[in-house]
Structure formats: C-alpha cells, structure tokens
Specification:
Radius of gyration: 16 Å
Largest sheet: 5 strands, parallel
Oligomer: single chain
Order of helices and strands: HEHEEEEHEHEHEH
Helix content: 25-40%
Number of strands: 8
Structural class: alpha/beta
Shape: globular
Strand content: 15-25%
CATH architecture: 3-Layer(aba) Sandwich
Distance between the termini: 28 Å
CATH topology: Rossmann fold
Number of helices: 6
Strand order of the largest sheet: 2-1-6-7-8
Length: 205
C-alpha cells in the first residue's frame, strides 16, 4: 500500500478510528510537522477537537537523522540505553527540548495544552520509524492523567510499532511492512511542511 499523500492517509486512518466519532471525551493531538496534517483530516472526519503536542528527536553523533532518543516540549525524554556519551546526550537533549518548547509556543500561540484529564487522547503522526518521538509524547501525556491513549499512524516499522503499542492502550496502524525503509517511502507525495502550513491546519483550513 502506498498513500497518495497525507490527506489520503488521514482519511483512511479516520475510517479505522470511526468508533471515536463525535466523542465529547476524545481529543486528537498531532505531532509536528507532518503528523499535524494527518491529524487534521482525522479530526475533521470524526468531528473531534484538534491540537498539537511537540517532541523532537535526538540525533546520533555522526548521523543526526538517526534518532537515538527524543524529548517532548515538557522535558519528558526517551534515550537509547546503549548510548554511552552522556555529555553529548545531555547537550542535545537540552537543545532539542528548547526547540520543542519554541515550536509549541508558535503552534499554540503561547497557550497550554487543553485539559486532558480523563480524556481519550489520539496521538497522530504521519508514520513511525524509530518510535522515539512518539514514545516521548506518550510519556508526556501519561502524566496528565488521561483516560486512554490511542496511537494512530498510517505506517510504522514493525519493531517500533510493537514498542509504542506496549506503552499505549490502543494502537491503530494501517500498514506495518516487514521491509521498512523510511516513512516517506510509503507516500507518493511527502512534501515537507513549514510552520505556516502547520498553523493553517491547526486553524482548521
């Protein structure tokens, strides 16, 4: 299965999440940037409120694109336990936490996350590769005393999906191929989003 774009992925994901339609105790949180677009279509189809929650990956020393961990906007971090360079990790964790907080301020116009106590929270991304950013967000959401955590993604690497499944109450994934290269490989159109486009989706446009 190849998704035409994030819109198609979001609409198909919404169909798989149909039981949550118009549920007043459910909120959709998108992970920037691409996850916000997918979350937008999910929220629109299911008539659910949409917001954003930010986490940033911590890249490996000699390969910044490869995540060795991640940190959320409120400092909740997930780090690969095999990493031995603690000084590097702490430096990168602080840097990415600051960037996550900056983005959260931009996307939410300096507002806090909505009250999530007792709510069903659907965490949406456009895909899961290592799972680090999703795990950091799960940790962040859990401490807010939510009622239920649902992971919703169009595509995920099998091992990473299993890791996040174990930390959530429910996981909805449309595609988890044994041969996984990168999230973008499963989209015909996987354009990178800038902050302006993220804000447009959050405004419901």
């Amino acid at each position: 299965m190849i998704f035409k774009d994030r819109r198609e992925a979001g609409l198909k994901l919404a169909t798989a999440l149909k039981k949550y339609e118009k549920d007043s105790e459910t909120v959709v949180l998108g992970l920037p940037r691409g996850g916000v677009e997918v979350a937008f279509y999910v929220s629109q189809e299911l008539n659910l409120p949409l917001d954003v929650i930010v986490s940033r990956k911590i890249g490996a020393p000699f390969n910044p694109e490869f995540a060795i961990g991640a940190v959320s906007e409120d400092g909740e971090a997930v780090i690969n336990e095999e990493m031995e360079d603690l000084q590097y990790i702490e430096k990168e964790r602080k840097k990415e936490e600051e960037e996550a907080r900056r983005r959260a301020r931009v996307y939410r116009k300096k507002k806090e996350l909505p009250d999530l106590v007792g709510k069903t929270v659907i965490l949406v991304d456009d895909g899961i590769a290592t799972g680090a950013t999703m795990e950091a967000v799960i940790k962040s959401v859990k401490k807010r005393n939510v009622g239920k955590i649902v992971i919703a993604v169009p595509v995920a690497a099998p091992d990473s999906l299993k890791a996040v499944e174990d930390k959530a109450d429910e996981a909805v994934c449309l595609l988890s191929p044994a041969f996984f290269t990168a999230v973008g490989a499963f989209y015909e159109n996987f354009e990178q989003l800038d902050d302006k486009k993220v804000l447009r989706f959050l405004k419901g446009k």
